[in-house]
Design goal:
With 482 residues, the chain is of the alpha/beta class. The strands form 5 sheets. A 7-stranded parallel beta sheet has the order 3-2-1-4-5-6-11, sandwiched between helices. A hairpin with a 4-residue loop joins strand 18 and strand 19. Helix 5 crosses helix 7. The protein is globular.
């Protein structure tokens, strides 16, 4: 079948795409920016890519007119707290307009469980989108999930951060709320299992794992698997705002996503039935097994996608193409260059920068800058990086965003998402003479921006000079003898 995959750059989309191709489907990936299509090169050769922004009433690409199935995987919750619901409704309406001009027979929508009388703003928005999609001229299949557990998922990463960093927790009441987590592998099975399945047309299904747990129990079971000591004490006085700040400072989530998550965590999300499991003959994975599977992927460096790489995890919600041309005028620069005797190793060093590897020099200063950024409402250093040695345009890298990553051209360009009074770029490249070039560019905003640059200049010189020295002096790793 010919399938349109919206949200192809998202956490679910990137997990779903390989499965669709493996099953022999022809896939058209819809993204807002082709340059951010971050799947691997082998997969990219097997798909067609179209640029569509469903928040804009733009022209429909010819490539999507002749489709059989469409996945609707567009969400805006982590982008803001005020108007994400109106944005989600607008995107759904525009999607229906597009689909009216196609040959689509079935649309598959991944939503949230909405079985309570009182719903959070997030779940109300999901239900509103579902109602809009039911007005489309196609058969709709809705899959309603609670927490999705898998390497790189926002829920898993938050639980991981909390349990790994805080052996003793004083928690709000929402940790006693019950939910029904689902393994990402099961979500993908459900999403692919309903393709063309007429018994699933024009129906909504709850999809949940076999365990119903409180958030406290989920953390305790995580700690048990990781062999961590964990003490959790619950207090009734922690307000939603205070809870949001608590999640924001302790975990790698953005404050806006933390607000929306806390709003949802007071609502029980438990499946009404498991009839779709019976229809598709799927035996769902227990929570503890899902955690073990997630860690296997992490330990093997096989994390396909992470919520942290979405634009909404950062400071700038606009498309980043406008920043890929580094300005030359009205800017301040720190330019360093050093000859390297091992250009391949220096390039590998550049491609492995950040995350657990750190920034090679003055890491304690980088960490202080990360803490200050968090206090100022920025992203801090906790996002890390998805893969220890691979980078693609659009990836998050601590408090930077990858704009360009071309290993053949030996060039890496990063854009700052930390809180600064202006805009900042950091570029690495190696020329034909094996000289490593490292350029920090800052375009200040107003007088305060200029004062910021000059106040930081001594630290920049110290850090950047040490960083390029470590990169240029990189040596091949010695192979162990048998």
């Amino acid at each position: 079948m010919r399938i349109l995959l919206t949200g192809a750059n998202g956490y679910i989309g990137m997990r779903l795409l390989p499965e669709l191709l493996e099953q022999g489907h022809e896939v058209v990936c819809a993204v807002r920016n082709k340059n951010r299509f971050s799947s691997n090169k082998d997969l990219a050769k097997q798909v067609e890519i179209v640029e569509i922004d469903f928040l804009q009433n733009s022209e429909m690409p010819e490539k999507i007119k002749n489709i059989d199935i469409a996945y609707y995987l567009i969400h805006s919750m982590s982008g803001n707290t005020k108007d994400f619901d109106s944005q989600e409704a607008e995107a759904a309406k525009n999607f229906n307009k597009f689909m009216a001009k196609t040959s689509v027979k079935q649309v598959i929508y991944l939503s949230g469980m909405v079985n309570q009388d009182e719903l959070s703003k997030h779940l109300k928005s999901r239900k509103a989108v579902e109602d809009i999609l039911y007005d489309g001229n196609y058969h709709l299949t809705v899959l309603r999930a609670a927490i999705i557990v898998g390497s790189g998922s926002s829920s898993f990463e938050i639980i991981r951060d909390l349990c790994e960093k805080l052996p003793v927790m004083i928690t709000p009441r929402w940790v006693r709320t019950k939910c029904q987590p689902t393994a990402i592998r099961d979500v993908i099975k459900f999403l692919t299992g309903v393709i063309g399945h007429e018994e699933c047309y024009d129906l909504s299904f709850d999809i949940g794992g076999p365990d119903i747990l409180t958030y406290k129990e989920m953390m305790e079971k995580y700690a048990e698997i990781r062999e961590l000591k964990l003490w959790i004490f619950t207090v009734p006085i922690m307000s939603p705002k205070l809870s949001s700040h608590w999640l924001y400072f302790v975990t790698s989530t953005s404050y806006k996503l933390a607000q929306n998550l806390v709003d949802s965590m007071s609502i029980e999300v438990i499946a009404k039935d498991n009839k779709l499991e019976k229809i598709l003959e799927i035996e769902t994975i227990p929570y503890k097994e899902a955690i073990k599977m997630a860690f296997y992927k992490i330990e093997q460096n096989q994390v396909i996608s992470s919520w942290k790489d979405s634009l909404s995890s950062g400071r700038f919600k606009k498309e980043l193409n406008k920043y890929i041309q580094v300005p030359k005028y009205g800017c301040r620069f720190d330019k360093q260059q050093k000859k390297t005797e091992n250009p391949e190793e220096a390039l590998n060093k550049i491609w492995s920068i950040g995350g657990l590897n750190g920034w090679y020099y003055g890491n304690w200063l980088w960490k202080i800058r990360g803490y200050l950024d968090k206090i100022a409402g920025g992203v801090g250093l906790r996002r890390g990086r998805t893969h220890p040695s691979q980078l693609s345009p659009g990836d998050s890298l601590d408090f930077w965003r990858v704009l360009l990553a071309d290993k053949q051209e030996k060039r890496l360009l990063l854009f700052a998402e930390m809180k600064v009074p202006g805009e900042a770029w950091l570029e690495f490249c190696i020329d034909d003479d094996n000289i490593v070039h490292q350029t920090a560019t800052f375009r200040p905003k107003g007088l305060f921006g200029r004062l910021y640059w000059y106040s930081m200049y001594p630290f920049h010189y110290f850090i950047f000079e040490g960083m390029i020295t470590r990169i240029a002096n990189a040596k091949p790793e010695k192979s162990s003898s048998n």
